[in-house]
Design goal:
The complex is a heterodimer of chains A (256) and B (204).
Chain A lengths: L4 H5 L22 H16 L7 H14 L3 H19 L1 H4 L3 H29 L2 H10 L4 H30 L5 H6 L1 H29 L18 H23 L1
Helix pairs in contact in A: 2-6, 3-4, 3-6, 3-11, 4-6, 7-8, 8-10
Chain B lengths: L15 H22 L9 H20 L7 H15 L5 H19 L5 H12 L1 H6 L1 H11 L1 H4 L3 H10 L2 H33 L3
Helix pairs in contact in B: 1-2, 1-3, 2-5, 2-10, 3-4, 4-5, 5-10
The chains are: A mainly alpha (256), B mainly alpha (204).
C-alpha cells in the first residue's frame, strides 16, 4: 500500500494534500489485530486483582503509541490524567481523612486503572477506520453474525451522534434540556430526548440498510478486502516493546 | 452460525436484515447510554445516579428492538457487540462475560413468552441491563487493594474501618441489584413510550 501513496499525496496542481486519504495504511500504523491484542492484554492484567502493578507499563505503552501516532496532546494528557487520579487516590485521604472522601479515593484508584487502559484504547479508536477493523475481525475468524452487526454498529454510531446533536439543538430552541432540567424531571427528559432520536435515526437506518442489502451485506460469508490486514515491521516493534515492558514490570516486582 | 431447527423451534438463523437491525439498535443503545453517562463529568460521585439514568433511558431503544426480535440469538449478539464496543473503549473484560450471561437469561425469558409477552420483555430488559455490573466489578478488588495499601496503613485505623463499612461488599452488591431495579423501570418506561409514540408512527 505504501508504494502507491506518493501519487495519492499530491494533487494535479502539485498541492500536498494534508494527511493520508481515508483507508490508506501507513507503515507506522499497527495491524488492528496487534492493537486489539495489546489492548486486551493491558485491560485483562490491569482490571484483574493486583493489576495496579501493570499500570506504569500500560501508561508507558500508551504514551509510546501516542508518540508513534504523533498525537502530542495525548502524550502530555495521559501522564497528567494518571497523576491526577493517583493524587486523588493517595494524597486526598492524607490531606482530608473523612470516610466520605475515602470513597472518592477508591474511585480515584479505579480511575487510575481506567486511564491506563484508555490510553491504549484511544490509540485504537484514533487509528482504526471501522472497515479495517472489521476486516481484521473477519481474518480472526470471528463469526459473521458478529462482524456484520458490529460493522453496522460502527457505521451507525457517528450518524446517530449527528442526529443526537440535532435533537439537542431542537430541545434548546424550545427552552428544554440543560443538566438541571434533566435531573429535576429525569423521565420527561428521557422521553423528550430518546423518542425523536430513535424516530429520526430509524428513518436514516431504513435508507442505509436498504443500500447495504442491495450491495450484498451479509449475503456472502467471506467478503474479501481491498487492503487485507498484514502484519508489518511496526507490529514486530510493538510486540518487542510490550514484551520488554512486561519483563521490566515482573523483574521490578521480583526485586521488591 | 449453526442452524438448529428442533421440535422446540430454537432457530438461530440470522437474516441479513436481522443483523442490520442488531447493529442499528446496538448503536442507538450505546449512544443513549453514552450521552446520559456524560452527566458523570459533573462529578464522579454522580456515577451511580448516571448509570441508573442511562439504564432507564436505554430501555426505550431496547424495547423497540425487542419488537423486531422473532427468534433466539439476537439479544445475545446485541450483548456481544455492545459489550465488545465497551471493551474497545477501555471497559473491564469481565463486562463481556456478565453481558453474555445476562443476555442468555433474557433470551430464556423471551423464549418463554414466545417473543410476544410484554411482562417477560420487561424482565428480559432487566436481565440484559446487568452488564452494567461488569463495569464496576473491579471496584471490589480496587477496594481491597486500596484498604490494604501501605498508604492506608499510615492512616488512622478508625478511618480505615469507617471507609471499610461505607464501601462494604454489601453496599456494592446493593448497587449491583439496583441495576435490575433500574432495568425494570427502563423496561416499563420503554413499553409506555412504545405505546404512546412509536405504535402510532408505525415503527413497531
Amino acid at each position: 500500500m505504501s508504494g502507491t501513496s506518493p501519487q495519492l499525496d499530491t494533487t494535479a496542481l502539485g498541492v500536498t494534500v494534508p494527511g493520508p486519504p481515508e483507508g490508506a495504511v501507513s507503515r507506522r500504523t499497527l495491524d488492528p489485530r496487534t492493537a486489539v491484542a495489546i489492548l486486551l492484554a493491558a485491560s485483562i492484567t490491569i482490571m484483574a486483582p493486583g493489576g495496579l502493578l501493570f499500570v506504569p507499563a500500560a501508561l508507558v505503552a500508551g504514551m509510546l503509541l501516542a508518540i508513534a501516532e504523533r498525537a502530542w496532546r495525548r502524550v502530555l494528557a495521559l501522564p497528567l490524567a494518571a497523576a491526577t487520579a493517583a493524587a486523588v487516590a493517595y494524597l486526598l485521604p492524607l490531606a482530608a481523612p473523612w470516610p466520605v472522601l475515602g470513597i472518592v479515593g477508591v474511585m480515584g484508584g479505579f480511575s487510575l486503572r481506567l486511564v491506563a487502559v484508555a490510553g491504549i484504547a484511544a490509540h485504537l479508536i484514533e487509528t482504526m477506520p471501522p472497515t479495517r477493523f472489521t476486516a481484521a475481525l473477519r481474518s480472526m475468524r470471528v463469526p459473521h453474525a458478529f462482524t456484520v452487526s458490529g460493522s453496522v454498529l460502527l457505521r451507525f454510531v457517528p450518524t446517530i451522534l449527528a442526529e443526537a446533536r440535532a435533537v439537542r439543538d431542537a430541545m434548546r430552541l424550545r427552552g428544554l434540556g440543560g443538566w438541571l432540567d434533566m435531573l429535576r424531571h429525569p423521565v420527561r427528559s428521557i422521553e423528550y430526548f430518546t423518542v425523536p432520536l430513535i424516530a429520526s435515526s430509524l428513518r436514516s437506518a431504513e435508507d442505509l440498510s436498504a443500500s447495504a442489502l442491495l450491495r450484498g451485506l451479509g449475503s456472502q460469508p467471506h467478503p474479501t478486502s481491498m487492503h487485507p490486514p498484514r502484519f508489518g515491521p511496526a507490529d514486530v516493534v510493538a510486540v518487542i516493546v510490550v514484551a520488554a515492558l512486561v519483563t521490566a514490570t515482573l523483574l521490578w516486582e521480583a526485586g521488591r | 452460525m449453526t442452524v438448529e431447527v428442533t421440535d422446540h423451534r430454537i432457530d438461530l438463523r440470522m437474516s441479513p436484515r436481522d443483523l442490520i437491525n442488531i447493529g442499528v439498535f446496538g448503536a442507538l443503545y450505546i449512544v443513549t447510554v453514552g450521552l446520559f453517562n456524560l452527566l458523570e463529568f459533573i462529578s464522579p460521585v454522580m456515577t451511580l445516579v448516571t448509570s441508573g439514568l442511562s439504564i432507564v433511558a436505554a430501555g426505550v431503544p431496547f424495547m423497540l428492538f425487542l419488537t423486531r426480535v422473532r427468534h433466539a440469538g439476537m439479544v445475545t449478539v446485541l450483548a456481544v457487540i455492545v459489550t465488545g464496543f465497551m471493551l474497545l473503549i477501555g471497559s473491564p473484560p469481565v463486562t463481556l462475560l456478565v453481558g453474555v450471561l445476562g443476555a442468555l437469561i433474557a433470551e430464556a425469558l423471551l423464549y418463554m413468552g414466545r417473543y410476544r409477552s410484554r411482562q417477560l420483555s420487561v424482565l428480559a430488559y432487566a436481565a440484559f441491563s446487568t452488564w452494567f455490573v461488569g463495569l464496576f466489578l473491579p471496584m471490589f478488588y480496587a477496594r481491597d487493594e486500596f484498604l490494604s495499601s501501605p498508604y492506608m496503613a499510615e492512616m488512622d485505623p478508625d478511618y480505615v474501618e469507617k471507609l471499610d463499612s461505607l464501601l462494604s461488599p454489601g453496599v456494592l452488591i446493593a448497587f449491583d441489584l439496583s441495576t435490575v431495579v433500574f432495568g425494570l423501570i427502563g423496561g416499563v418506561l420503554g413499553l409506555r413510550l412504545l405505546d404512546k409514540h412509536f405504535r402510532k408512527a408505525g415503527l413497531v
